[in-house]
């Protein structure tokens, strides 16, 4: 007889199996939901960190250059011996990077800080700005000598012959001067010497002028031909001896004209001009240009660049703050708005970056702010 206490082996019923599958699906769905939210959170944090880093890099780079504006012997009030129609944000390849870089930049003065209000691309209906700032190259020591060997090339061009190195003592036994008194670097230094597109500040008893190097120097000769990349060489005539065309002892100092602006990009990452708008322009980046050299990227995905200025009139002591375009109203009839770049004492900087598109096709944005009082502009000793 069969043992009645022995169970007959059997599997799960269909109902039990369906319940088990349903419970498993619920658990897996919950786990996948938590995992997706975690991954989305990680992606969001990464995107926020990246765009904040881009904005921070942009702000820090601009602030570092602004803090040098006017340094190294740039004359108070700017360089006045300038042509009426000089340029900036233009390079040796003939490319313009701002919409206002070829207009008459009256009053023919190159200031240590030069606003370019509303001259950048229009992004999200917002007119972006540019800015240029001027300071001497601290690594360029040509202050140990002067030269009068500057000759006209005609049509606004000049050549300057530098003394052969090493410089010798002017008295017997005519030994080389100490290294600290030697011009550095040499004119024909292939790495650190002046190159086409570099700027030289020429100073003598008649004032200051800017010379743009138009070809890489040969030997000790620096060529600053007419029709240069920034249309500045015509102003050199203003510091020659009147009516003679000769020059008093003149010192050359390499200077940096640093320009910041936003550059639009197409879908393949190719640069577009400052007038490009969506849908042709799909991304943007912050660019830094030195003199007339081609610009280089500073930060990616930057979609806003704005500046405002605190100003102070040194003659009246009247101050204005947070002025968008650094201009004042001249009350003389008829009233007119005129640039007051020589009054700039503080610069407010705003940089906005955005993320890559989220999975919903939207963007995240981060904005960084700072303000800089350029050390050579914030105070002027009126008793000197």
Give a description of the structure:
The protein has 384 residues and is of the alpha+beta class. It has one domain (47-372). Helices cover 14% and strands 29% of the residues. It has one helix and 18 strands. It has one helix at residues 14-66, and strands at 113-116, 122-123, 126-127, 130-136, 150-154, 157-161, 199-204, 207-212, 221-224, 251-265, 283-290, 296-300, 302-312, 319-323, 327-330, 336-339, 344-354, 365-372. The strands form five sheets. Strands 1, 4, 7, 8, 10, 11 and 12 form a seven-stranded antiparallel sheet that branches. Strands 14-13-17-18 form a four-stranded antiparallel sheet. A three-stranded antiparallel sheet has the order 5-6-9, with no helix packed on it. The protein starts with 13 loop residues before the first helix and ends in a 12-residue tail after the last strand. The relative contact order is 0.17. The mean pLDDT is 84.
The rounded Rg comes to: 31 Å
> Main sheet?
7 strands, antiparallel
| Computed structural class | alpha+beta
Number of helices: 1
Distance between the termini: 127 Å
Low-confidence stretches: none
Mean pLDDT: 84
Number of self-contained structural domains: 1
- Helix and strand sequence: HEEEEEEEEEEEEEEEEEE
- What quaternary form is this? single chain
Strand count: 18
List the keywords.
384 residues, alpha+beta, seven-stranded antiparallel sheet, four-stranded antiparallel sheet, 1 helix, elongated
Blueprint of the fold:
Elements: H1 14-66, E1 113-116, E2 122-123, E3 126-127, E4 130-136, E5 150-154, E6 157-161, E7 199-204, E8 207-212, E9 221-224, E10 251-265, E11 283-290, E12 296-300, E13 302-312, E14 319-323, E15 327-330, E16 336-339, E17 344-354, E18 365-372
Antiparallel strand pairs: 1-4, 2-3, 4-10, 5-6, 6-9, 7-8, 7-10, 10-11, 11-12, 13-14, 13-17, 15-16, 17-18
């Amino acid at each position: 007889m069969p043992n009645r206490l022995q169970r007959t082996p059997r599997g799960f019923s269909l109902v039990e199996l369906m319940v088990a599958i349903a419970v498993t699906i619920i658990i897996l769905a919950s786990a996948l939901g938590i995992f997706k939210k975690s991954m989305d959170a990680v992606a969001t944090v990464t995107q926020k960190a990246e765009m904040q880093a881009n904005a921070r890099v942009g702000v820090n780079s601009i602030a570092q250059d602004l803090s040098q504006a006017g340094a190294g012997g740039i004359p108070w009030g700017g360089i006045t011996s300038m042509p009426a129609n000089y340029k900036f944000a233009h390079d040796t390849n003939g490319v313009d990077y701002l919409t206002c870089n070829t207009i008459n930049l009256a009053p023919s003065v190159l200031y240590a800080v030069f606003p370019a209000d509303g001259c950048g691309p229009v992004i999200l209906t917002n007119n972006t700005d540019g800015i240029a700032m001027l300071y001497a190259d601290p690594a360029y020591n040509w202050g140990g000598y002067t030269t009068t060997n500057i000759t006209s090339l005609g049509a606004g061009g000049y050549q300057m012959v530098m003394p052969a190195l090493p410089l010798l003592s002017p008295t017997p036994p005519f030994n080389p001067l100490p290294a600290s008194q030697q011009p550095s670097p040499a004119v024909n230094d292939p790495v650190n010497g002046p190159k086409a597109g570099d700027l030289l500040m020429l100073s003598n008893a008649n004032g200051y002028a800017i010379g743009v190097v138009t070809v890489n120097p040969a030997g000790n000769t620096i060529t600053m031909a007419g029709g240069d990349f920034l249309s500045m060489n015509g102003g050199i005539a203003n510091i020659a001896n009147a009516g003679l065309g000769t020059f008093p002892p003149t010192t050359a100092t390499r200077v940096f004209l640093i320009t910041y602006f936003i550059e639009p990009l197409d879908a393949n990452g190719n640069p577009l001009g400052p007038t490009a708008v969506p849908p042709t322009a799909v991304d943007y980046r912050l660019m830094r240009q030195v003199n007339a050299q081609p610009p280089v990227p500073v930060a990616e995905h930057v979609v806003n660049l704005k500046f405002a200025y605190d100003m102070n009139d040194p003659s009246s002591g009247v101050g204005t703050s947070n002025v968008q375009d650094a201009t004042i109203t001249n009350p003389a009839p008829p009233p007119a708005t005129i640039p007051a770049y020589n009054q700039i004492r503080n610069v407010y900087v705003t940089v906005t970056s955005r993320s890559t598109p989220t999975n919903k096709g939207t963007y995240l944005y981060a904005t960084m702010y700072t303000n800089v009082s350029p050390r050579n502009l914030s105070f002027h000793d009126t008793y000197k």
